[in-house]
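Justification of computing resources. Each target in the renewal requires a structure prediction run like the one illustrated here; the chain below, 183 residues long, is used simply to show the kind of job we budget for.
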Amino acid sequence: MTRATVKTSSRARPHPVKLNLEGSNQQLANLCGPLDENLRQLADNNGVSYNGDWFNNAARSIVGGTRSFQDFENDIRNQAASAFPTYAEQIRAGQNVKDIASPYINSMSRILEINPDGITLEDNSIRQALSGISPKDGKPAAKSLWEFERDIRKDPRWNNTNNARESASSLALGVLKDMGFNG
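Resulting structure tokens:
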């Protein structure tokens, strides 16, 4: 019997797993499934996508002892750091891009009146906000939250929200008051 160490993140403590490599395929599937899911979740939380075979092969490599979970976590984090260079240091230190993007996702949800769970790191508005380039020096820079919110209000989906209607009503009322109408 071989012992493998499974690590779900750089901060988690290793959990020993007893592994009988001569056992049935079902035992291998039982071990690979949670690893596969943990890797998928980590990739999703960092805006990185791979095909299903990548996750299956990664889980088998971990169970087989040729690579560790940490190796694959590093691969995912390095990929995310290259996609979001402004936050590369935080990502490599263990922070997930989804946590970094949370203020943008919540603002987008509030302004467009959509469920925040439906907004992913694959959304173009979120990706652009997190991976922009500074016009001043050409270096990676995130959009400020107010710039992001201004840009979200230019999104065609905003026109169909209560926010847009209330904004238009307030603007129209302001114009009428400026013209002397107080009714």
